[in-house]
Amino acid sequence: MKLRGMRIDLGEIESVLASHAGLREAAVERVEEGGEARLVAYLVAEDGEKADGRELRQYLRSKLPEHMVPARFVQVAEMPLLPSGKVNRRALATVEGVVLSEQGMVAPRTAVEQKLAGMWREVLKVGKVGVDQNFFELGGHSLLVLQVMVRIRREFDVELGVRTMFEEPTIAELAIEVEKARAMGMKAQTPVLERRARPRVAENATREALLAQLDTLSADDVQTLLKHVLDAKQLQ
Questions:
Q1: Residues 32 and 137 placed together within one structural domain of the fold
Q2: For residues 43 and 74, is the Cβ–Cβ distance under 8 A?
Q3: Residue 29 has pLDDT above 90, yes or no
């Protein structure tokens, strides 16, 4: 199957999760939430112990590409089964479980954290966000990362690498990187453009033009732009 244009092998994700010493069973499904398609992993832990959401995410990232890491992990007491003994995938969403949260809800404390929180709420289409919550746990993905980075570039006039969001996926961590960039004078390499009406996607767009447009494009348009940037190997 495909998710946002990327190939996803649910069986491969389940296999990697099942290889984790703390898990007995795992099932991964593609679900629609708020108009967005996301991956949700349903887990049964060994000996009924509560699994560690942060550790599981890091474990998967060490073995799978980012787009195959589920947005949410749900721990259940047992898997719903069909008479044949196989997992009843249609019943997974109705099984009572505990969402494994990686961090708590800590409100923004500084001006930078407040601005970043506003960006996350708008891009992720969520209500309150804590400074220690993981961007990807909240439903973020690579296309939304690009939109956030464009907004950071415009709001703070600093140049951060795209990989920063993957390495520092919380508001608290990202705010530190913004402050560091400011202190080191790492200004945006090109003029920061104000938001404009939705532009036409140019086939021969430059890196700077692509970044300036990302914030106002649809998911399909962003995928087209992302292809151009990746082909040019200029994102990192």
A1: no
A2: yes
A3: yes
Which of 125-139, 141-155, 174-188 comes out lowest in average pLDDT? 125-139
Residue 143 in any domain: the answer is: yes
Query: What is the CATH number for 88?
Result: 3.30.300.30
Q: Do 94 and 139 reside in the same domain of the chain?
A: no
Inside any domain, residue 106: no
CA distance 151 to 119: 7
Residues 225 and 115 in one domain: yes
Structure tokens at 28: 């991964």
pLDDT digits (tens, 9 = 90+) for 53-62: 878 888 998 9
pLDDT band at 104 (very low <50, low <70, confident <90, very high): low
Ordered DSSP codes for 158-213 = B---THHHHHS-SHHHHHHHHHHHHHTT-B-SSPPPPP-SPPP--TT--HHHHHHH
Same domain, 91 and 116: no
Tell me the residue length of the chain.
236
Give the span between the Cα atoms of 23 and 15, in whole angstroms: 11
Per the prediction, the chain carries an average pLDDT of 79
Domain hosting residue 59, numbered range: 2-99
| Rounded Cα distance, 72 and 100, in Å | 7
Distance CA 61, CA 68 (A): 9
User: Is the pLDDT score of 232 beyond 50?
Assistant: no
Q: What is the total count of domains within the chain?
A: 2
DSSP for 8-72 reads --HHHHHHHHHTSTTEEEEEEEEEEETTEEEEEEEEEEGGGPPP-HHHHHHHHHTTS-GGGS-SE
